[in-house]
């Protein structure tokens, strides 16, 4: 192969943009289109003449307009972007109701083993017996932890799992000639996906108010029950961070009315290994592997939300599922019995299964229970250290895995929950969950998980105390102007939502952000 003698300019001109090489610590990172230009390339490519068009008339008619960059420019751009990305590996994530826990590197190592990472869902079943064995074992422990009779592994996320469980409930009612049941009871503190899932399946949603203690009152549930009710969808521990102490009585009332109990398992991390939901009377519950068993959290990537089912709903579980036939594992692809059918094309996300089972096996039964207890301890520690400065709407009882504050302590300061959260960014912390649950005005929901050390919690608490003290002292500008230390200042979020700019334009006026 002969040397390319075409050559290129040593220092391509960067016009109309800021050069990324001008500073090691830029407050804002330009786009690649602003760094590069269309006239040069970071690699030498020979000129090619194409005489025959093989694209059936689909050849592009406009320039590709990709920016020409050197390899160091491209590499440094993405490294700088990674430094601006907040992640669980860079700091505490106090998001309430999300359980952003540490992802152990051992899990990642196991998920990258060739026998798990390199398989394909269309391989012959005889070549993936090890993977099927792992799925079977994971499913077994999910049922053991929840005391349930069956598990559907294929749902890809929590909301997908809700759909699976509610479809099983719908199939069970139809099998009994109870298709007229078209109402689903949903507490007002529920995740928004609960009523959305019910409505998607054609149910009408009836809201159940929370009592003065932040929990669901059994009397309110009994009053809402009728022959038209198909199910209740309830989270326990609930989204206020409280354990539903009347859950067994609620479950009994629901069953007596001929309905089923769907439990949102988003907060299972608070009770895993300590309380078995099946003992409480649930019929279906999804389990977010990313929230409970440390697989990476959401973000549009591969997820997993297995659903455990009671004995009453087990016959209606979806396909595919793994079944043992002697020493061989089979993948059952065709509907049997009362199964409502196929929920998704394949069985699930293998990497999530490997990570979750690794987490289970490395902790053991006692370790899982200890993780749950530590999560509860950490949340109560934050509550105890902050309750003299912050205000809690339900302050008369211990919390579970998360602590809920409201904005009453900011009354008269001119500072909102959003302002307070923005100021946390200036202090290096990701904000907690804001304005949720909706039952509390100006909600601030904090979940430390079991991952955080006492040192980290103390640093977070001292920062929160300092912010609260400054807010009450009248230093409103610190909050209303925040963040001032982040790469981007406070955005006009209303304008950004109403006039989003989804495509970069070369003209300077068209590039104006919502800032």
Automatic annotation (TrEMBL):
Where in this chain does the record put each Aminotransferase class V domain? 180-298
UniProt record, GO biological process: glycine decarboxylation via glycine cleavage system
The record's section on InterPro entries has: Aminotrans_V_dom, GDC-P_C, GDC_P, PyrdxlP-dep_Trfase, PyrdxlP-dep_Trfase_major, PyrdxlP-dep_Trfase_small
According to the UniProt record, what class of enzyme is this?
A: oxidoreductase
An annotated GO cellular component of this protein is: cytosol
User: What SUPFAM superfamilies does this protein map onto?
Assistant: PLP-dependent transferases (SSF53383)
Q: Tell me which stretches of the chain form a coiled coil.
A: none
Q: What is its EC number?
A: 1.4.4.2
Where are the residues of the annotated region Disordered?
A: 1-22, 490-515
Q: Which GO terms describe its molecular function?
A: glycine binding; glycine dehydrogenase (decarboxylating) activity; pyridoxal phosphate binding
Ranges for the Glycine dehydrogenase C-terminal domain? Answer: 372-474
Q: Which domain of life is it from?
A: Bacteria
Q: One Pfam family, short name please?
A: Aminotran_5
Q: Which reaction does it catalyse?
A: N(6)-[(R)-lipoyl]-L-lysyl-[glycine-cleavage complex H protein] + glycine + H(+) = N(6)-[(R)-S(8)-aminomethyldihydrolipoyl]-L-lysyl-[glycine-cleavage complex H protein] + CO2
Q: What's in the keyword line of the UniProt record?
A: Oxidoreductase, Pyridoxal phosphate
Function field:
The glycine cleavage system catalyzes the degradation of glycine. The P protein binds the alpha-amino group of glycine through its pyridoxal phosphate cofactor; CO(2) is released and the remaining methylamine moiety is then transferred to the lipoamide cofactor of the H protein.
**Name the record gives this protein:** glycine dehydrogenase (aminomethyl-transferring)
Q: Which species is listed as the source?
A: Pelagibacterium lentulum
Q: What is the lineage of its organism?
A: Bacteria, Pseudomonadati, Pseudomonadota, Alphaproteobacteria, Hyphomicrobiales
